[in-house]
Design a protein that fits this description.
Length: about 300
């Protein structure tokens, strides 16, 4: 059964107690949150985007996630709230001049300071390594430290000058309380957008039905045009009637009446039309020629000179 040879076992070797909960190293957790993509677990590289809950992603990874339709539970849980590329905002980050990256430790014989960050706050100069709270503006994508927004209170972005509201400020890699607040804001924002789209649809239907009404009932400009045309037609009819009457009196006096129709013949030269209109007909003076101008051709037209 063992324990021979003079060995004295202790209690913790014989009795198994409950397992101790493994504690996550805070430094390693901060490095993973601020230096690696939430989806692909790769190092963050530009273009870097953030969702409405404040998580950091590579833009390429988000596009691949939206195009990939495979059922990966881990990816679906991490980015279940991202439905399209419009749900993420591209960040405008300020580089840290003191950060040299992997260039200074090519041989592996130097100490890597994991707390040294690639990006800093452009206003205060704090490093974005997780030790300080950072946030970005949803309207423009500029990134600042929370201390900068509290110390320099303004309703306009410090770098680009775009106006923003309190709802546009999103905390990066916040705690559980921050995530709950951001999630509630996100749901309210999307609900307002849906209601706005539904309210726009009946307006579009009304605008589509308006042109039909305008076609059926002409507007004031069309009515004026129709009235003007009617007056022109009436004036022309009156002129024709007057000329017909005058021609009729001349015809009865001379005794020349047409056999086919009861109307009398009249000449265009005697009418009240313009000279341009009269010049169309062969009876006009411009169409007549003298004997010198006439030709010896067999074919005769009044317009051949």
């Amino acid at each position: 059964m063992g324990c021979d040879g003079g060995t004295i076992p202790k209690r913790h070797e014989l009795v198994k107690g409950p397992k101790k909960v493994e504690k996550v190293d805070k430094n390693a957790e901060l490095v993973a949150q601020w230096n690696y993509c939430t989806l692909s677990q790769e190092i963050l590289r530009r273009p870097i985007v953030a969702c409405e809950l404040g998580r950091l992603y590579n833009k390429d990874a988000v596009i691949e996630f939206l195009l990939d339709k495979s059922d990966d539970k881990a990816l679906r849980q991490a980015a279940s709230h991202i439905k399209s590329i419009k749900n993420v905002i591209e960040l405008k980050l300020s580089d840290n001049p003191a950060w040299s990256g992997d260039k200074g430790n090519t041989k592996g014989d130097k100490y890597d300071d994991l707390q040294r960050a690639r990006f800093i706050c452009p206003v205060v100069g704090l490093e974005m390594n997780g030790r300080h709270r950072f946030c970005f503006l949803r309207c423009c994508g500029c990134v600042f430290s929370e201390r900068a927004l509290k110390e320099i209170k303004a309703e306009v972005c410090h770098t680009c000058g775009v106006p923003f509201q309190e709802d546009d400020v999103i905390v990066l890699n916040g705690n559980k309380e921050d995530v709950e607040v951001l999630k509630k804001r996100m749901e309210d924002r999307r609900l307002r957008m849906k209601l706005g789209k539904k309210s726009k649809k009946p307006k579009a239907v009304e605008t589509a039905s308006k042109p039909d009404d305008t076609e059926e009932s002409p507007g004031p400009s069309k009515v004026k045009g129709l009235k003007y045309e009617e007056t022109n037609v009436n004036s022309r009819e009156k002129k024709l009637n007057s000329t017909q009457k005058s021609a009729g009196t001349n015809g009865t006096s001379s005794g020349k009446v047409s056999k086919s129709s009861g109307t009398t013949k009249r000449s265009i030269a005697d009418s009240e039309e313009s000279e341009a209109y009269k010049s169309i007909f062969t009876t006009h003076s411009s169409a007549k020629r003298s004997k010198e101008e006439s030709s010896n051709w067999v074919t005769h037209t009044s317009y051949c000179f």
